[in-house]
Fold this sequence. Notes:
This protein has 14 helices and 18 strands. By secondary structure, the chain is α+β, with helices and mostly antiparallel strands. The strands form three sheets. Strands 1, 2, 3, 8, 9, 10, 11, 12, 13, 14, 15, 16, 17 and 18 form a 14-stranded mixed beta sheet that branches. Strand 10 and strand 11 form a beta hairpin.
Amino acid sequence: MVSFKCQRISIVVLVVLGGVFLVLSLAGRRPLTNLIDNQIKQTVMLRPGSDTFSKWVDPPISPRDDMYLFNITNPAEYSKGAKPHLEVVGPFVYKKVELKTDANVSGDGELVYYHDYEKYYFDENATRAIQNTTRLDDVIFIPNIPLISVATLLSQQNLPDIVKKIIEGFIETYEESHGVLTLTLNGSVHDILWGMPDPIMAKLHDLNLAPSSNFSLQSNGSTDPAALTAATTVHTGFADINDIGTYSRFHGRNSSGCWGTPEANVINGTDGTQFSPLRIYNKTQPVSIYNEQLYRSVDMEFVEETSYSGITCYSHRIPAWALQNVTFNPSNAGYYAYTYNGMLNLTKCSGGIPLFVTKPFFLDADSRLTANISLNVKPNKTLHDTYLCVEPYTGIVIDGHKRIQISVQTQAQNNNITGMLQYLRDAFVPIIYVDEHGSITRDLKSTLRSSLLIPVQVVHVLVYVVLAMATVMLLAALTLGVRVALLRYRAIPEREDDRRVIVREEEITSDSEQYLSIDGASKGKFYDAAD
Length: 531
């Protein structure tokens, strides 16, 4: 049997070791976490010559744009005032190559300057894998946006009278020689997407009122002249990791310039591919992106913790208040939010063309928006909402979908341009819906796991293992201490009985006429010899 002394030594050893492990798990957690944070900062920071910088300049992820168009299937009836019957055609899948050229870091290492360029390439195999009903050369009908643009332009008070007369005279002459202008524009899917000659656009271009003589819904390559001359500037994260990837200037500008207040015009946020890991890890802090197509910055809020390809990530979505009208969110007055909920008014930003952005199929928007159109597709939050899934330790977006729909506002008008405009139905008619999405590649996922995520997980597991060992040792010391105390308590009566027996034996020895008969060690009875 182990002696009390050995047991006491064991208790002391367990308490000391448990205490040491407890201190290591608690006091050592912060230095280890700081070490990991510093390693992550050094890894994700945009430093020339680093692997991160090279991947930022030439991303290994190729975003894909799935483009859907809305075809008016009753163009003749629509031109007479009927409700447009819309058929969704597509998707037409395009691979998007995003390039950053002439990238240079400032002398203090805080900013990187570059020029950006985008190019789209049609992916026929990917398109055919999804749908095989509509091709690029199929003809579709959309609202006559050039005509609607002219009508809107002529209604502006600041347009010189001489320009108005030139446009009105051109429309009159054109209709005399080519017939009455219709309320629809028809062309192949490819031409409507990427450009087709249009007489109205050509005239507006001659008057320096349009950037091109062609009409198109998309541009292949940058159409912003500033993108070719003025550099875009972003923060490298060297001075403050919270600023990594955020724009300092976009195409030389720090303001979008088309909204109603300075706050609305501020260019803030990243391009949506990288965020500060500290901001992401703090779930209560929204992250900001600047979207060139929307001409504005948008906050995205944490929604849930999920995973993609086995990697934990935080899902962020656009909050409802970002697209609410001024009745529900007065701060959106700077974005001219005077119409329905769930819309962004791009009229000022698109040169006077009444274009409006919503989520696809008017998801989360006012139900009245579909009252004057016939559209059979119902919105689905899983399929039609924008979201970004961000890896929290690095701030890298590993999966995401940016989904927007563009509609044109049509209104009946009585003016001197053409009598056809009086037949326009008051409506917001969808034209195009784009789902831009991309996800982390297999190689990048492997690199992310091996260089960052696994070491982070190992450290966290190690901390908890040491804490568990400390807990086990302290519990073992406590258990052993209780056991020793109980044994000592039980041993006290036994020692007292032994002392009493010795005393009695001394008394009996002095009296030869008595003898001792002990009936059991615990009883200690004494009998007289005469008995």
